[in-house]
Amino acid sequence: MTTSSTGAADVQSAPAGFAISERSAHLRAQTALFMRDHVLSLVSHDLRGPLNAIHSWAYVLERKLDASDPNSQRAIAGIRSGVDQQVKLLETVVDATRAETKSLALAYAPFSLHPLLDETIAEVRTGLARARGVEIRLDSQLATEQLNGDRERLVAALWLMLTFAVEAGAPGAEVALSTRADAGAWHASVVYEPNQAALNDAALPHLLEAFARKQAGEPREAKRIAWVFALCKRVAEAHGGSFEQSDAVDGDGNGNGVATLTLRVPFSASVPK
């Protein structure tokens, strides 16, 4: 997937009057890449448990079955062979596909946070937010704080948080970004009022893939994040921070049903040894 081809495809499929910038197209492509890796990781993890259980039960069955019965022994061999094939598939296809992107490389450098906020908000505001009639409000308690980290990665994480909030809100809604410094860390929270119908309305402008938006509205297991936020989680954790997604319940247009996306990154993030 290339930035240019992604952007061109989006512009052609977008509603009239909604043009996607090259910058947003690039960030959208990064979102898709991280989401792919996240899904592959879940597949690899969630399949190994059942496969290990099948393999163990095969040994139990082998001891219970008649060793002289060729049909029983053939069935056991078939079960083991099937498990081995699935494990090999995970190792050679799923895990191998993730090998090059499993470790997230960061380019560390000190930078001021306020310009990052203004730049990211402007990108979302002049693109998708304007097309959806959504207002983005900034409530910043920062002064001249600087952070030592990968600026471009953090821009991508914040852009995705704001973009999803705009996508998930009804036309004309408000998205609030609150940011502050506390105990040696930068905190950024995006608050919005979820609207599932707007999130999946094909007639409205969208930047995120339809399947990602649909999956984001499904119940989450064991507090897992929605697939679309894989970039936010990996970027935050690579900096020694965290990303959290609250449960979302559709609002009624009066401020009820508010959802929050929270990013926390230490100011002292440094290159891992």
List the helices and strands and how they pair.
Layout: H1 3-13, H2 22-64, H3 70-98, E1 109-112, H4 113-132, E2 135-140, E3 146-149, H5 151-168, E4 174-182, E5 185-192, H6 196-199, H7 210-216, H8 230-238, E6 242-245, E7 259-266
Helix pairs in contact: 1-2, 2-3, 4-5, 5-8
Q: Would you write up a description of this structure?
A:
The chain is of the alpha+beta class and 273 residues long. The chain has two domains: 36-98; 106-266, Heat Shock Protein 90. The chain is 52% helix and 16% strand. The chain is built from eight helices and seven strands. It has a five-stranded mixed beta sheet. Strands 1-3 form a two-stranded antiparallel ribbon. β4 and β5 form a beta hairpin. α2 (22-64) runs antiparallel to α3 (70-98) and α4 packs parallel to α5 (151-168). The chain is elongated.
Structurally, how many domains make up the residues?
2
At CATH's second level, what is the architecture of the largest domain? 2-Layer Sandwich
> How many helices does DSSP assign?
8
User: What is the CATH top level name of the largest domain?
Assistant: Alpha Beta
Intertermini distance: 32 Å
- Helix and strand sequence: HHHEHEEHEEHHHEE
DSSP strand tally? 7
Structural class of the secondary elements?
alpha+beta
Radius of gyration: 23 Å
